[in-house]
Amino acid sequence: MTLTHPYAASAPDRTAVGVRATARILAAARGGTTALPVLDGDGPFELRRLRSHGLQARVCIVGAMTAPLGGDRLRIEATAQHGAALHITSAAATLALRGPTPEHATYDVHLTVGEHAQLHWLPKPLICAADSDLRQTCTIDLAPTARLVLREEQVLGRTGEPPGHVTTRLTVRCEERTLLDQQAAYGPGEPGWDGPAVLAGNRAAGQLLVVDPAFEESSPEVRLFGGAPEGGQAVLTPLAGPAVLVSAVAPDGLHLRHLLGAAQNASHRPATSSNAL
């Protein structure tokens, strides 16, 4: 079936430099549930519907080819319209590899959440293999009554290999007001990335961001997670808006996931959003 919706995409542009691909997801509230009028995979992104959970539509991103490689230009756009509930995950970790050219790869994510809508962006980790070079961005636009749960995890290098290079930027806007804008860079060529002010010898970094209007009335206090530094540590901090941010570093992906999970479970849950976390 051919999509005629304006979100429909053409076949990926394969060039000598790399793959150009954009996948699109659109969730809409219809008849007391959430429909997916647009589910358009492209290039390395195969999009699969999962069984709905209550009113929430669920989508899994499956890798159809090895990506991102050097020179690739990849993008995912997901929108939860007014009153919709959308959960997005991935089937496996994303592995960034060195490509056939010295060009860096880009992986851009753009999320839009409408009034009284909610979106959970919970992919598996990003692994930056040796000699890879990736520039990743995540840009989020929220309506004032929107809710968001976002988790990001970066692992530098596979077991027993040196790390690749990655720069990440997360920008969150609520009603055109910037709620969060942060950038990090890890790997060879970045000054001090492995020093005590950044990763301090760790090889995994991640964060959990929860945005909920209920935090305007009640927000959790600053809290630390983790014991000895060699096992990784995390901190939960309220933001200057209806949000909390958990930032964590750990020696590997497994310790990182445990830290983020502990912080998530221990976070205060607003009474109006008991399922936000």
TrEMBL record:
> InterPro entries of this UniProt entry?
UreD
MF terms (GO), sorted A to Z: nickel cation binding
**Primary location class:** cytoplasm
- Keyword Glycoprotein listed? The answer is no
Which Pfam family, an example, fits this chain? UreD
- What is the annotated localization of this protein? Cytoplasm
- Looking at the record's lineage, which domain of life comes first? Bacteria
Q: Which UniProt keywords apply?
A: Chaperone, Cytoplasm, Nickel insertion
User: Which GO CC annotations does the UniProt entry carry?
Assistant: cytoplasm
* Binding partners and assembly: UreD, UreF and UreG form a complex that acts as a GTP-hydrolysis-dependent molecular chaperone, activating the urease apoprotein by helping to assemble the nickel containing metallocenter of UreC. The UreE protein probably delivers the nickel.
State its role: Required for maturation of urease via the functional incorporation of the urease nickel metallocenter.
Q: What family is it from? A: Belongs to the UreD family.
* Protein name per its UniProtKB record: Urease accessory protein UreD
The scientific name of the source species is Streptomyces auratus AGR0001
